Amino acid sequence: MNHDIKVSHLTKKFGNVTAIDNVSIDVNDASCVGLLGPNGAGKSTMMKAITNILKPTSGRIEIGGVHVSSNPKKALKEVGSLVEYPKFYPYLTGLESLYFVCRIKGMKRKECQDEIERVAKLTGVSGYLDKKTGSYSRGMNQRVALSSALLCNPRVLILDEPTFGLDPKGMKEMRQLLKKINGEKESIILLSSHLIYEINEVCDRVVIVNGGKVAYDSETPDNEQWMAIKLDKLPEDTTFLKKFSSEFRSDGTRLILKKNEKIPNNEVLMELMEMGLSVESFGEYDTLEDIYISIVDSKR
Amino acid sequence: MLNLLAIVYKQYFKNYYRSRSFYLMLILVVIISFMMTYLTFRYHNAIPAFIGGGVYSSLSLTLKARVFNYLWAFGLSNFPVFASVFFGSPSISSEVESNTAFHIFPLPISRYTLLIGKYLAALSVTVILITFYMTVQVLVIDYVFNIGPVVQFYYSYIMAVLFVVAIMAFTFMISSIFTKNLYAYITVFVIYFLIFNSMTLVFQILYNMDASFLLSSASGMVGRVYIDINPSTLLGGGSLSPATFPEIMVSVLVMSLYTAISLAVAVVMFERMEAAS
Asked: What is the ipTM of this complex?
């Protein structure tokens, strides 16, 4: 059975405000799709609609061919989600909360304990599962929420800013975990984030949402193929760059070059300096960041 | 379906009985029980003012026991309302206000099952509290009058449980309308204590009849099964006999209708509920 996510002409309005405007996205094959966008772009609204937290004003959402609004129980059977900032019932322990999810997802009583232990090791929550969730810090709560999403090996993972509220170490661990899950190619991951590098690092495909519409949908660009050189003054004529790279341009402040495997970076630097150009900085070019900023700026 | 319902029920039951609200209600019920125990021991040979001295002394022991049972039922009368407000009013609205909706709405379980499981859990903790009170009642009455529970005691218990079933369903319905707990608390109080009381007065003064279709009126049957005196009536009358069978059945019907309609509305509202943020 496939577990593809198919969003067709989804529109969600809150009164007169259109949060999502006729959006269509297909997520298939076991891949990780990153959702990027500024605050209020409609990322979370889309994720809430996919997970039945919000009802679409119009349009259709299917998971594995099952319509989410009319049969959420079946559609969400293989879905693990962490949307917004979920909280647990405060007088239950983390263990009881995760046990509840396992049981709802159809796991037998005896299997739940092993499954919770497996996931707890991945997310690092073993130390506080016996405490009541009402006493959890934001980071602890977020980790248990991720554990809840990962229980029972869901074929679809919907994660809305999963690193939000985590410390830098926790963020790194979370990214590594998501990369590992994506590397196993058994699940579809839909991941939203404000952090471009996070999407770049984890996802195979990126969708940029702006003003409730899909503004960009493509494979995640490979940053390692490009380099950016910041000079104290950009030369008017950049044709000399042909000797270093087949593709190059200027973004107004930097020279952007596609890397040439035959010419090492330090050689490029040396030659530029020999030409009398003063190099201020030199590094990988974040293609996605540029795309993102150009899209967001164009809306302003 | 039943398996899922049992799983949901257990989770909510644990969350309820460990909550501060439960312990607050438990303290309240212990205080009321203590006060009623004191009243029974102190005044069982004296005269309840509303009956009159001459009459009371001539009553049979069973009837005296029924009078005191009536007073115990009167002491309990508003307790299910407070318990329902504490357990029921935030039941649905809190899912959005406390962000638990983001945890449970994406789970592969129908909202109908979630609501019914939670309703049964809230019902159970309230029935536990009422059972505690009525156990103390039957022990005290038995000790003081040296007679076991009169048959009306069982009717009274059933009516009390039915009242909890109805008022809890009613508070769940109100809760399903709001996404803020405070609005749900206030609305239940306003409807039950202001609107229902006002309607009772209007019907009695203008139409010279009891508004027996109101939940507050039907709940009076918890005590009227002992002696048929309606504490909320201005119409006078009443008797030391128990309420008649048709009167009891009217109350049962009213409470059943409140339960069915309230739960149906709550389910529909909960199915449509969204958690925007």
From this structure: 0.86
